[in-house]
TrEMBL record:
Similarity-based family: Belongs to the bacterial ribosomal protein bL12 family.
The protein's name: Ribosomal protein subunit L12
Span of domain Large ribosomal subunit protein bL12 C-terminal: 111-177
Alphabetized GO MF terms: mRNA binding; structural constituent of ribosome
Pfam families documented for this protein: Ribosomal_L12, Ribosomal_L12_N
Transmembrane portions of the chain: none
CDD domains registered for this protein in UniProt: Ribosomal_L7_L12
Length: 177
């Protein structure tokens, strides 16, 4: 019986010891966390103080601060790249004109613009614009009546020519750009 009592007491002692160890670990963790939190808050207040001090500087002092930081941190100045259109010489401008003409000849997308239409064929033009653009009748009417108006943008040359020929067949003046 004494042995049973001693075993029971040793289990109780072990349980109490484990409870004490767990409690100590918890308090250590809480202390460590609160210490970390305090350090973070101190760093945060340090940064806030720096921001507050810098915001009180004059423009001249700020410029000096930037220069000193560049020197201390070994940051090199980067010159801004500026384009001066007047610096282009006349020979360069002359050389660009043929390139522009070639680019215009090689144009792949076109804009179809309705400049005007014959009042007698207004209904036919509205129907054609409605079918061509997939608009409602009211939208097509407003589009036609708002001439000169861009009908289609970024259209291939063949499609633009087809639209132009259809509308010119109805008495419209169409421009391809």
């Amino acid at each position: 019986m004494l042995r049973s009592y001693l075993k029971l007491m040793s289990w109780r002692t072990a349980a109490k010891t484990q409870t004490r160890i767990i409690a100590a670990a918890r308090s250590t963790t809480i202390r460590t966390f609160s210490t970390s939190l305090c350090l973070f808050q101190q760093e945060n207040t340090k940064i806030e103080k720096l921001v507050e001090d810098i915001s009180k500087l004059t423009l001249l002092e700020t410029s000096q601060l930037v220069d000193q930081l560049k020197t201390k941190l070994n940051i090199q100045d980067v010159a801004p790249i500026a384009f001066n259109p007047s610096a282009v010489s006349a020979t360069d401008a002359g050389a660009e004109e043929p390139a522009k003409k070639e680019a215009a000849e090689e144009k792949t997308s076109w804009t179809v613009r309705l400049d005007s239409f014959d009042a007698g064929s207004k209904a036919k033009v509205i129907k054609e614009v409605k079918a061509m653009l997939g608009l409602t009748l009211v939208e097509a009417k407003k589009t036609v009546e708002a001439a000169p108006k861009v009908l289609k943008e970024n259209v291939l040359k063949e499609d633009a020519d087809a639209v132009k020929s259809k509308l010119e067949g109805l008495g419209c003046k169409v421009t391809l750009e």
